[in-house]
Description:
mainly alpha; 2 domains; two-stranded parallel ribbon; 1 helix
Amino acid sequence: MTTITALPTPPSRLDPVNFRDRADAFLAALLPFTAEANALAAEVNADKATIVAKVDLAMLSGLGNAAANAATAVAKAAEAVAAASAAQQAQTLATAAWTAALAANPDLNPPVRLNPHTITANLSIPAGYNAQAAGPLTIAEGVVVEIADGASFAIN
C-alpha cells in the first residue's frame, strides 16, 4: 500500500520571515504528494473492483442457491398440498363407503357385539395391540392362541 508523505508546514503571511522558505518547500512537496495520492487512489480503486467482483460472485452464488432451495421448497409444498388433498378425498370416500355399508347392512355396527364361546381358529395378538372377548371362553383342541410381549388379551 502506498504511503503518503506528510506535507511540510505551509507558508503563512503572518510569518513573513519564513514565508519564502516554507512556500518553496511546500510547492516542492506538492508534486510528490500528488503522485503518492494518485498511486494510493489507484490501489484503492483496484481493491474496490476486486471486492465488488467477489461480492457479486458471492451474491450470485448465494442467490442461485437460494433460488434452487426456494424452487425445491415450492415443489415440496405442492406435493404436500396434493397429498393432503388426496388423503382428505380418501377419508371422504371411506366415510361415504362405511355409511353406505351400514345403510345396506346395519349388522356391521350393532349396538351389542356377540362372540362365540369357543375359539376355533389360531389367534395371534401382536405386540402393541390389545384384545378382549366376553367369557366364559373355550379354546378348541389343536388351536393356538399366541399373545406377543407388549400385547394383552382380556376376557370379561
